[in-house]
């Protein structure tokens, strides 16, 4: 369902990564553990235009794992999944393994 939504300009559609509530061995994690606010890029807009009309492409691509701001973005519900739209400038950085 998310493939149908193509963000406008320099916007990015992100699916937030929800940290697991228990470990692989079955130990339940407390809710107060520090969480890294991250997400996976699902769709990317074509980019913004500068004053001369030249296209400035978005630095991210689909599949990137990004660090998100604590607040901001626009919540979008598509089907039973929840996504967030952010501007390219709002993304704090990319996460690499």
Automatic annotation (TrEMBL):
- SUPFAM superfamilies documented for this protein: GroES-like
Superkingdom is Eukaryota
Q: What are this entry's molecular-function GO terms?
A: ATP binding; metal ion binding; protein folding chaperone; protein-folding chaperone binding; unfolded protein binding
Q: Name one GO cellular component term.
A: mitochondrion
The record's Gene3D superfamilies line, in alphabetical order, gives: GroES chaperonin (2.30.33.40)
UniProt keywords (A-Z) are: Chaperone
Q: Does the keyword Chaperone apply?
A: yes
Q: How does it assemble?
A: Forms stable complexes with CPN60 in the presence of ATP.
Family per UniProt?
Answer: Belongs to the GroES chaperonin family.
Role, per record: Seems to function only as a co-chaperone, along with cpn60, and in certain cases is essential for the discharge of biologically active proteins from cpn60.
Q: Which PANTHER family has this protein been placed in?
A: 10 KDA HEAT SHOCK PROTEIN, 10 KDA HEAT SHOCK PROTEIN, MITOCHONDRIAL
List the protein's name.
Protein groES
Which organism is the protein's source?
A: Durio zibethinus (Durian)
């Amino acid at each position: 369902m998310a493939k149908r939504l193509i963000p406008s300009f320099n916007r990015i559609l992100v699916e937030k990564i929800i940290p697991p509530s228990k470990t692989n061995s079955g130990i339940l994690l407390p809710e107060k553990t520090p969480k890294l606010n991250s997400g996976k890029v699902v769709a990317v807009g074509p980019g913004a235009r500068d004053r001369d009309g030249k296209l400035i492409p978005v630095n991210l691509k689909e599949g990137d794992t990004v660090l998100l701001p604590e607040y901001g973005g626009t919540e979008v519900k598509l089907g039973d999944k929840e996504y967030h739209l952010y501007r390219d400038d709002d993304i704090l950085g990319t996460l690499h393994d």
